[in-house]
Specification:
The chain is mostly beta strands and 436 residues long. It is 6% helix and 39% strand.
Length: 436
């Protein structure tokens, strides 16, 4: 059959959603955590984990020295990946054996400089053949897993972007054959690049500026879209062509960091620090297209860095705001699906800016200053801590253990400012003398 530009367009529009679905199915079926917040970017892992810990805690399988940074690990096919810094000289992708911690290979590029809060921010996005990263100084890199080298590299400057105050802090998103990045430029809010070549497939219009979060693919109001939060807008963007489907400017957010959380087929939960609070949005279809409206606002309680997690029809979020972090007692909190705060643990214990991850019906929290890993039951009735262990040593009040955690098949990978560790949370424990 003879094709025309019009039939090619129709074919692309039909095949791209299928490709996205197939990618999601493939990832969901794997015991991997291939990028920021996992395969679905929701921070929730399925399955079971060790819930009754030995007296001295679960086994730390390995520990490796790394440079300062805030970028978490990705886990794919028995390997752990992090983006690190080579001092002030450049960015380095480091790859380790997940079970033993043995360094397998590393590759990088020159990117000199020192950021405000120095170190990497990005969690790598790993596919079967490549790993994609965004460096703190705006370098967009594709690493070939077979050649163990940089395959291609671009820069945020290429798209007219201005660097945020606290450096580029986002993780790439895979959508079908493309990798999606957020330059947040006037004419390139989001961009889609061909995975293998780095060529531009599309770029969206304005989605606001100074965002530090990562794009996420969701379906709202029956329409697949990429959602993103900046300091001025919450947006939904068409993953096929970059068209901005809707924006919402009613939430005054200063330095939006957490990725929005999908609540159901229409609702999106937004949270942020710097006294921004939290809000529940509804995205619905009207005659003129998709429209977002605010359903509920909590101006007092917001999470500065980490996204809210949806577990058993409730939202759990580390509530803190930069200005009053050590004065206001918020801590871990729970919201219902209407956006009402049900409880907060009033910093007892205080996890500071530490990460939260869910496995089944349990939460794992990692103290941002005390370095304590805690196992908490996801309980809408109140804070219910089951176990705890100190993972990282305390070094004053500037530990800055803020990196997102990664979990796959019982292996938990956590990062401080100088160490990367893997903790054995498999239900079936083995002797300390047995290989992991």
């Amino acid at each position: 059959m003879q094709t025309t530009p019009w039939t090619d367009l129709i074919a692309r529009r039909m095949l791209l959603p299928l490709a996205i679905v197939l990618f999601a199915v493939a990832q969901a079926g794997a015991e991997d955590w291939p990028g920021f917040q996992g395969a679905d970017r929701d921070g929730v892992a399925q399955g079971v984990l060790l819930t009754e810990w030995p007296a001295d805690g679960p086994r730390v399988l390995w520990s490796n020295d790394v440079g300062p940074g805030f970028g978490g690990a990705a886990i794919a096919k028995g390997r752990a990946y992090i983006l690190d810094r080579d001092g002030v000289n450049g960015d380095v992708l480091r790859v380790y054996n997940l079970k033993t911690g043995k360094p397998l290979w590393s590759a990088g590029y020159d990117a000199p400089g020192r950021a405000n809060y120095h170190g990497s921010r990005c969690t790598p996005m790993v596919t079967d053949t490549h790993a994609f990263t965004v460096g703190p100084f705006g370098d967009i890199a594709c690493f070939d897993l077979q050649t163990q080298a940089v395959a291609w590299r671009k820069h945020m400057d290429d798209f007219g972007a201005f660097p945020p105050k606290f450096a580029w802090s986002q993780s790439p998103l895979i959508v079908g054959e493309w990798v999606v990045i957020a330059p947040m430029a006037e004419d390139a809010g989001l961009i889609a690049l061909q995975q293998t070549t780095g060529e531009v497939a599309w770029q969206s219009g304005n989605i606001g500026a100074e965002g530090y979060g990562s794009p996420r693919l969701v379906t709202l109001a029956g329409r697949e879209q990429i959602v993103y939060l900046t300091s001025t807008l919450v947006s939904g963007v068409d993953p096929e062509n970059g068209k901005v489907l809707w924006t919402y400017d009613g939430i005054p957010v200063k330095r939006g960091i957490p990725t929005p959380t999908k609540v159901d087929g229409n609702k999106l939960f937004i949270t942020a620090g710097y006294n921004s609070g939290s809000a529940m949005l509804e995205v619905r279809r009207e005659s003129k297209g998709l429209v977002a409206n605010e359903l509920k606002r909590d101006r007092e309680h917001g999470g500065q860095i980490h996204s809210a997690l949806l577990v058993n029809k409730h939202l759990y979020v580390n509530l803190n705001t930069n200005e009053t972090l050590r004065r206001d007692a918020h801590g871990l909190g729970c919201f219902d699906l209407d956006g009402n705060l049900l409880w907060k643990n009033n910093n007892a214990p205080d996890i500071n800016r530490g990460a939260v991850l869910a496995v089944g019906e349990h939460l794992l929290t990692l103290g941002g200053e005390d370095g304590v890993l805690r196992l908490v039951k996801a309980d809408p009735e109140g804070y219910n801590e089951l176990e705890s262990i100190k993972v990282f040593d305390v070094k004053g009040n500037r530990n800055m253990i803020w990196a997102a955690m990664a979990y796959a098949d019982g292996y938990l990978v956590v990062r401080s400012q100088d160490q990367l560790k893997c903790i054995d949370l498999r239900r079936k424990q083995v002797s300390v003398n047995d290989p992991p």
